[in-house]
Amino acid sequence: MNLRHTLSVLAVLVFVAAFARGNSEPASQVQDRHLNILYWQAVSILNPYLSGGTKDIEAASMVVEPLAHYDENGGMVPVLAAEIPTLENGGVAKDLRSVTWKLKPDITWSDGTPLTAHDVAFSGAYCRHEEAGCAALASFADVSAIEALDDHTVRITFKVAKPWPYGPFVGSLSPIIQRQQFQDCLGARAQECTDQNFGPIGTGPFKVDEFRANDVINYSANARFREPGKPWFRTATFKGGGDAASAARAVLETGEYDYAWNLQVEPEVLERMVAARRGELLMGFGSQVERLIVNQTNDDSSLGDQRSLYLDGTNPHPFLSDPAVRRALSLAIDRQVLVEVGYGAAGRTTCNVLPAPAAYASAANEACKTPDPVEANRLLDEAGWARGGDGVRTRDGVRLSILYQTSTNSVRQGTQALIKQMWEAIGVETELRNIDAAVFFGADPASPDTFQKFYADIEMYTNNFQGTDPEVYMAGWACDQNPGPHNQWLGTNIPRGCSDEYDALVEQFSVTPPGEDRFRIAKRMNDIIVQNQFVIPLIWRATVSAQSSSLKGVRMNPWDSELWNIADWHR
After folding, report:
1. Are strands 393-395 and 386-387 parallel, antiparallel or unpaired?
2. pLDDT, tens digit, 9 for 90 and up, residues 257-300
3. pLDDT tens, 519-557?
4. Cα separations (Å) of 494 from 292, 356, 392, 458, 481?
């Protein structure tokens, strides 16, 4: 059965169900109220706390919600909260050591039970449990307690004064989950609760009817959603798989889908598709950076259970622990070529992992925009890495031979091929590997192929942060955020680099109010990461997606889930 046939059958079934409920709408209108979404990176789990994959977080955002979202301009808007707490309205304590949120009244979960502040407190306890691995743990930095004061009031207390107290429960990464559903899933048991992780009960505009991991999700409208008349769409299908180009084609050329996400597609290919006039591109620059992650630990498979583990700095990488090698790898890359070939107007060269907002962007690393293979060769020569007869450099029997992995995508494979040529020109042997995106960005702690496991020397992907304050994002590179079995491989310091100065700045940043000092600290943190080449930034990427010409109400959002206002989508 082909896709078009499948969708037709589904539309008929939707009509029959509507008719059985006494719905008098014509079949054409019922079919029109079905939404087809295509994320070519398939969803593997619907619990954002157990996955760092954007596709998982966004699919879940149709169901589970935070206290507040970030809008398309990066401003906070209340969702489950009655208002955003501030110093002015008394929600933020004068000593900045607590924030109090008030819930909107009479919100219910899709199963009809009431949402209470106890669910909020439980959600914090779920992520902060010492035996759990939580992808959103950095959002709860410096939290000492989360307590329900009554059914509609929750107070979050911090160990220190927090000028920016909006880490917990703001944005799609840290939503509210139902205590009743997840109360037996705390700590080490979290990964075992398949029914809960695949079918969370939520307060959002949709509820999960069926979830097939790494394939498809079928949703229906939440009849108990708090906003009358919303969502406009009565059912939705969230399909995963394929590739970015076929996803773009399914909206822009064939019209089989209403929305396609993350169109990392060559610019000339997208231009031809747009010419069909069946849809349009949506684009917005936020904080996305395509980057190379440089493994600071030994990924040799012979190490067994100690492979790619930090081990308090006792397991260094055999050659990437040499600063000269890391520096040379960055110098050899012509970033402008990567932009021209793979991104066009949707990409800009960058030397920072923190390119935006502009006030936080460092100007200390701009030299990386000009490639310098001559200097790269000089550095390697000076460090004793000599070329052998095959042109590959070695030192003390160690060969500069890199396994460079990323997710499967034509633009990423094109970027890999170009960088391989650039590195081989300076005597670095490079083997390329690509992994299906659903696996690479998946949530299975047993898989050897996730980006968190990092069983390679170099890996490449895009990362970003929610909202316009980078505190949570920058805290993700602290030493104690290294992935490993202790946190179900959900730590956020993927390169496993460690700096005492950086850790001290993380603490300082968390207590510094917005203004020049906060900007200065963020820039220094950025500089430590990129000047040590723990991460090699390549391209500041725009968020690029496509919507059908008939779809209305979409507000492209580079600061939160792209589906943040899906309750407002309509035809």
Report:
1. antiparallel
2. 999 999 999 999 999 999 999 999 999 999 999 999 999 999 99
3. 999 999 999 999 999 999 999 999 999 999 999 999 999
4. 11, 21, 27, 11, 8
Q: What is the DSSP string of 170-189?
A: BSTTS----HHHHTT--GGG
Express each pLDDT in 360-370 by its tens digit.
Answer: 999 999 999 99
Confidence of residue 20 (pLDDT cuts 50, 70, 90): very low
d(CA 257, CA 250): 6
Binned at pLDDT 50, 70 and 90, residue 341 comes out as very high
- The CA distance from 48 to 50, in Å, is 5
CATH fold group of domain 33-278+549-568: D-Maltodextrin-Binding Protein; domain 2 (3.40.190)
Per-residue b/e over 407-444, b at no fewer than 16 CB within 10 Å? bbbebbeebbebbbebbeebbbbbeeebbebbbbbbbb
Pick left, alpha or beta for residue 438 (phi over 0 → left; psi -120 to 50 → alpha; otherwise beta).
Answer: alpha
Break the chain into its structural domains and give their ranges: 33-278+549-568, 284-383+395-543
Phi, psi dihedrals of residue 294, rounded to the nearest 5° = -105, 110
Residues 357 and 74 sit within 8 Å (Cβ to Cβ): yes
Strand-pairing partners, residue 235, are 34, 220
Binning the chain into helix, strand and coil, the percentages to the nearest 5 are 35, 20, 45
The answer to whether 227 touches 566, Cβ cutoff 8 Å, is no
Q: What is the mean pLDDT of the chain?
A: 94
The C-alpha atoms of residue 537 and residue 339 are separated, in whole angstroms, by 12
Q: Report pTM.
A: 0.87
Q: Topology of 284-383+395-543 in CATH?
A: Dipeptide-binding Protein; domain 3 (3.10.105)
Distance, in Å, from the CA atom of 73 to the CA atom of 556, rounded to the nearest integer, reads 10
- d(CA 116, CA 125) in angstroms, rounded, equals 15
Identical topology for domains 33-278+549-568 and 284-383+395-543: no
Q: Residues near 4 by Cβ (< 8 Å), separated by ≥ 6?
A: 256
Q: What are 222-237's pLDDT values in tens digits?
A: 999 999 999 999 999 9
Q: What contacts 386, CB < 8 A, 6 or more positions away?
A: 393, 394, 395
